Amino acid sequence: MNKRKKVLLIVISVVLAVVLLLLSTAYFVFLHRYHGKNTSAVWDKTDAYDISRVATLRKEKDKDFIILNLADVQMCDLEDIFRMPVIKKEIKYLVDTVKPDLITLTGDQTWSNENLISLKCLISWLESFGIPYAPVFGNHDYGNEKDSAVLSQNKCCDIYESAKNCLFTRGPTNLGALGNYVINVLEDGKIFRTIYMLDSGYEDKITDGQKAWALWNADGIKAACGYYPESLAFMHKPLPEYSLAYYDYRGGGETQAIGDVHVHYSLYGSAQNGFFDLAKSINVKDIVCGHQHGNNFTLLYSGVRLTFALKTGELGGFYEDENVYLNGATVLRIGQETAIESVFVDRDAYRIK
Ligand SMILES: [Fe+2]
Description:
Layout: H1 3-31, E1 55-58, E2 65-70, H2 77-80, H3 84-98, E3 102-105, H4 116-127, E4 133-135, H5 153-162, E5 181-187, E6 190-197, H6 208-225, E7 231-234, H7 240-250, E8 256-257, E9 262-263, H8 275-281, E10 284-289, E11 295-301, E12 304-308, E13 328-334, E14 338-344
Parallel strand pairs: 1-5, 2-3, 3-4, 6-7, 7-10, 10-12
Antiparallel strand pairs: 2-13, 5-6, 8-11, 9-11, 11-12, 13-14
The structure holds fe (ii) ion (FE2).
Residues 108, 138-140, 236, 291 line the site of fe (ii) ion (FE2).
């Protein structure tokens, strides 16, 4: 073989190898379906309660316990691959500014069927802060239709559960929703707050199973410490009481606003299944949701602060006009009292081009 033919052969081989590499990468990123572990952990309300299995965090005495909530980050591999650095920069700014003890994520961390790179990118970024974080599922985290994404819900559970600083557990598998778990925040060895993380992503309501399981947790904690600790609940979709609260507030009723009220999208989320009343009965004082990106408020309704969390980042749709740029995060500073505020980012610094 002459030299010219040899060079041609090498060029063709290299081109073929590159094409093969690109095709296989595209396959494993966009076409292959990762199903994850299909575990079974059946819960029954007669199960004995073991409080030692509940994740715990510690609050320093005389210092607020600070929660930074990121809502609807909504990254997508195909559309957002070159936009991820802007979102990462924004999250870093929020973490550096707020210095949270816990980062919560109220669902729709990713969206659409292409979620492999997005979720891995987000998790590795959150891990880099060394701060505990706690996500719940939204309606987009595992596909446009349930489990149509590259990562199924079970695979997302596997990934969250294997991340070092992530408090997520998939919880019982017979509640009609996955990713329900509880966190206790301790101060001086006593339970200061209980946090319920609930999956309201794909179901149209907080299910009967989730309600019974939440009550079982609350009663188990009460049996251990003698009281229902003041509690918070994080979920993706707003409860029907968000709408009742807003119209009561608008109509001059008893509902009070804490901070500004922005309503630019539908208030609809979960259907009525009585979770609000249950939550009140177990001393939940804060409920935080995402889902409708154009809404942002905290309304004190029937003794419970209902917070529509501020959307984080511009991806997946957000709201702005000349007066308001609904991009940032929600911060809860919890001491003897709880203060809730929206932290808005600068629209020029975090504009997605
Ligand atoms: Fe959503």
